[in-house]
Each structure stands twice: as structure tokens, then as C-alpha cells.
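Support request, priority: normal
Reporter: lab tech (M.K.)
Component: structure prediction queue

Hi team, I submitted a job for Transcription regulator AsnC/Lrp ligand binding domain-containing protein from Gordonia hirsuta DSM 44140 = NBRC 16056 yesterday, and the status page still shows it as pending. I've pasted the exact input below so you can check whether something in the sequence is tripping the parser. The sequence length should be 92 residues. Please let me know if I need to resubmit or if it's stuck on your end.
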Amino acid sequence: MITAIVLIGADIHQIPETAQAVADIPGVTEVYSCAGDVDLIAKVRVRDHDQIATVVTGQINRIPGVKSSATHIAFRSYSSSEVEGGFSIGED
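Reply from support: The job had stalled in the queue. We restarted it manually and it finished. Here are the results:
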């Protein structure tokens, strides 16, 4: 599976509706509203790169309320137990 993180700029008057519309797209696993430089962050998990293009440019970017997006493709995933385990290698 390929994971992409999509940073979304949204119309501030439509954030809840936009977030729900993004969350309803197949392949989108989570959507967060947040403070900062972006309004929404979506996590997309699909089988191949072509599907990322379909989800992001073909669906997310066409939702009313979406003003901009930036997509970041993840190379590797880490969990807290994996990170802690990596730092404890070689410890006695």
C-alpha cells in the first residue's frame, strides 16, 4: 500500500462540509481539521501511484470548498514501538 498525506487549503466557511466530503472518498482513511498553514490534512492509502492521482486530482481537488492541496508521498511508516526499539538496539 502507498500512503500519501494531503495538505488541503479550504474555504473557511465550508471546512466541516469539505472535510466530510473528503472523508467520504474511497482511499481516504482519515481527515483532520487543524490550525496552522493548512485547514485539513487527509491520509490516503491506495495500492498504486495512479490511484493517488485519481483520488487527489480527480476527486479531492474537485470538491467545492477545496482551494488548494499539496500531496506528500510517504516512504516508510514508523510507530512509537518501532522507534523506541530502534534506539534500544545494542543497549545492555
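Strands lie at 2-10, 28-33, 40-46, 66-73. The chain has one domain: 2-76. Let us know if anything else looks off. Ticket resolved.
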